[in-house]
Amino acid sequence: xxxxDVLIRPIITEKNTLLGEHGKYxxxxxxxxxxxxxxxxxxxxxKVDVVSVNLCNMPGKLRRVGRSRGITSPWxxxxxxxxxxxxxxxxxxV
Length: 94
Prior knowledge:
Blueprint (H helix, E strand, L loop, with lengths): L6 E4 L3 H7 L3 E6 L5 H12 L3 E9 L3 E4 L2 E4 L3 E8 L12
Antiparallel strand pairs: 1-2, 2-6, 3-6, 4-5
């Protein structure tokens, strides 16, 4: 897997914005990615030092549109902790 195929998108929510103040940033990552791949992708993409990576598999949820029912795709979330004093500018000012 190529380094830049690991990160799909940043997750910007109220809770994750508060985590950003403590040096933790959340991303949606590829379902097959592991911790070393996520660490390498974040360090290469944002030029920061990663202290730790926590991964979490998020299940799909049941959704309805009128009568039809469906399920959203399951996905994988990564919470990345950076070295103290560093930050990712992508999350600033949101």
